[in-house]
Amino acid sequence: MSKAAQRAYTAIRDSIINGAYAPGMHLTESELAEIVGVSRTPVHDALLRLKADGLIEMQRNQGARVKNYSDRDIDEIFELRAYLEGYGAELAAHDISDKDIVILEKLADEMEALGQVADTAGLYEFSRINSNFHKKIIEASGSTLLTSLLSRLIDMPLVVLKEHSWRGRANQNRSNEQHRNIIDALKSHDPKWARSVMYGHLISTRPRPESKL
User: Pairing state of beta strands 56-59 and 63-66?
Assistant: First the structure.
């Protein structure tokens, strides 16, 4: 991917993740090219990559649209994450480095320092740090296959969290406590404990529609 296409990809992806481009929104190559400051060709390449990431949909003669996430989609994403990240935490627990533990503790500190997020900016910042926390554990697992499988699942568009009763937001203190439990399990190099607490964390904090609470 060219530098221009990478720049377009990053800009469009960030706008989807932070909720600036809402689900169902039509994305026009010419408009995106003007916004990003590149030609249409790198924008087209970026959209193809975003389609592969599962963030947009492209249909013949209809152009690109930001993907709509159904309730079933969200359930499946978090179920898959729970299984895969649980396994990743188990792998990481075997020989995670002290340096990685320090990084995880710093990220946990940053999430706790945000307090109870209530606005879009706070939710986006918490979501960003939380994603980095989970990515660091998968990185520490040493599995390139697992990293590849989870690359499309960890970054949940902000609009999904905003439009659902995100349990991690409703009880952020519990979510932060679970992060500390995960770190404790990794520090103890206890693979089964790490897998269990990671699985439970993701299942207990997955977004749910209002009507189902």
Answer: antiparallel
